[in-house]
Amino acid sequence: MIIQTKLSNGDKVWIKDPLQKVTIGQVRVSVTDSPGRPGEELFDNYKAQKEFEESYMCVETGIGSGTVFYLGKSCFLTKEEANESS
Prior knowledge:
It contains one helix and three strands. The chain is mainly beta and 86 residues long. It has a three-stranded antiparallel β-sheet. The longest helix has 6 residues. The chain is elongated, with a radius of gyration of 16 Å. It starts with 11 loop residues before the first strand and ends with a helix.
């Protein structure tokens, strides 16, 4: 399996509170691809699932026990995107 991430270690992104440019220090990827159990209708964890989630930790906010960021939600490629986010 080849996993392609949007950002890599060493890339710079913008975060808010306070607004600052930070360095990606850890990339986390979770890939789910389960066909589920045939006929399962009651419990979601046994139903078919497909998901790709990418998250990041930054050098300046701590690796391992710091904040986890998500591109477009809590970290941004440009200062303008960060300022415009809610």
